[in-house]
Specification:
CATH superfamily of the domain at 2-203 and 391-413: Vaccinia Virus protein VP39
Strand order of the largest sheet: 3-2-1-4-5-7-6
CATH class of the domain at 2-203 and 391-413: Alpha Beta
Strand content: 15-25%
Distance between the termini: 37 Å
CATH architecture of the domain at 2-203 and 391-413: 3-Layer(aba) Sandwich
Shape: globular
Radius of gyration: 25 Å
Number of helices: 11
């Protein structure tokens, strides 16, 4: 018996199953996602889900997972899937009856990827003839919820209990307010969403429930702000006990460097000269800070936030909060750390210019999706970001799958990167 994972991507569902002690067989077409899965030792068939026959899985499938490509529906794209939605609904209705009209409907689609959201029904119809699968879990962007609601009554007539709705990944310990349309179905148990483990404001344990922890912040997830790893800031000065290290020479490329370099030692003569990395077009200058005891003083501090893109309405979240929904693709270089000026600590010290935005790294983005920090992303920067942005957060996936597998998650099952 196997768990079949359609559109398996780099392994969001697969990694969660590994945590739960189960392995799946993933169907995936993207070359680099397949290479990532291979490096992560996940079972994969490289194929077009729309072309692969269902026959090899008949009589052998206990669970079916599907996260169809979201580019046609996502806020990050042109959203042509919304125009194609009637065609997708028609494809699902036809496949329910065993009629394959996909080729004809595809010619009328504005985006050829739209129809992929109907593919799970092709597999489900065939598997149902063998009384399978036992359970189903599907995930997509919120605009696909009407389609999941079309699936629901069909599955109920086949003997499934079904739940559909929108869940926020932050409510399950993901350091990201990623909202997703979910379908859960089971032949053996009542389908319902898993109880949230986190909330925007922490809730204490009471007679009415176990309580919920506060949403996981980006700083906590990335290990910034712990006692041995200070929150990254840019300052004029710094020094022993004087706060995090400033940019030493304008060479910093990622925010991770600010965390890992440690404290900057001041110049022996007591004068701290700090060339700051500044926004394009701004002049460079040095900030000098003197103290009678020869030690440097921190003159200015910056707080860091994550900006989702360079548009005027971009989501900007401070490190003390979860990230907004991460999406990349053609915007892979737009998700950046930006510094926001705080009040000067020394009124007579010169305030340095705001440092230029720093691009998020694939490692940081993967951790914010709750992948391990050392997850083996394959491909170049754009290919890695595309995989990360399209993946289901493993921590959310584990909460969705655990009840179907008779498993109980503990806080230690998913340890965020330190």
């Amino acid at each position: 018996m196997i768990v079949l994972d359609l559109f398996a991507g780099p392994g969001g569902w697969s990694h969660s199953l590994t945590i739960l002690g189960v392995r799946d067989v993933g169907l995936e077409w993207d070359e680099w996602a397949c290479k990532t899965r291979a490096a992560a030792r996940q079972l994969t068939i490289r194929t077009d889900v729309a072309m692969y026959p269902v026959g090899p899985f008949l009589g052998r499938t206990t669970g079916l997972i599907a996260s169809p490509p979201c580019q046609a529906w996502s806020m990050a794209g042109k959203r042509l899937g919304l125009l194609d939605q009637p065609l997708v609904h028609q494809a699902v209705a036809d496949l329910t009856l065993g009629r394959d009209t996909r080729a004809k409907l595809l010619t009328a689609c504005q985006d050829e990827r739209s129809l992929l959201a109907a593919e799970p029904m092709r597999y489900l119809h065939a598997l149902h003839q063998h009384g399978q699968p036992e359970w189903i879990a599907m995930e997509e962007v919120p605009d696909v919820l009407p389609l999941w609601r079309q699936y629901a009554p069909i599955l109920r007539t086949w003997g499934f209990s079904v739940w559909t709705g929108i869940l926020n990944a932050a409510d399950y310990g993901v350091p990201q307010t990623r909202r997703r349309a979910i379908l859960l179905a089971s032949r053996t148990r009542t389908a319902e969403p898993p109880p949230p483990t986190h909330a925007k404001v922490a809730e204490p344990e009471s007679l009415f429930g176990p309580g919920r922890a506060r949403w996981v912040s980006m700083a906590e997830a990335l290990g910034w702000g712990a006692t041995d790893r200070p929150v990254p800031t840019v300052c004029a000065g710094g020094g022993p006990g004087g706060g995090p290290e400033p940019f030493p020479s304008g060479s910093r490329k990622t925010l991770s460097d600010a965390r890992d370099r440690g404290t900057w030692t001041p110049h022996p003569d007591g004068a701290v000269r700090q060339p700051h990395r500044v926004r394009a077009g701004a002049a460079r200058h040095d900030t000098q800070v003197h103290r009678p005891d020869g030690q440097s003083a921190e003159a200015h501090r910056w707080s860091w936030s994550l900006r989702s893109n360079n548009q005027a309405n971009a989501t900007v979240r401070p490190l003390s909060e979860p990230a907004g929904t991460l999406f990349f693709g053609h915007r892979s270089n737009e998700c950046t750390w930006v510094a926001e000026s705080a009040a000067a600590i020394s009124s007579d010290a010169e305030s340095p210019p705001v440092p230029e935005p720093i691009r998020i790294t694939a490692r940081e983005a993967g951790v914010l999706q709750t992948f391990p920090a050392d997850y083996p992303w394959a491909g170049n920067k754009g290919q890695q970001f595309s995989q990360i942005g399209n993946a289901v957060p493993p921590r959310l996936a584990a909460h969705l799958l655990a009840p179907h597998l008779g498993k109980t998650l503990t806080p230690d099952d998913f340890t965020l990167a330190a």
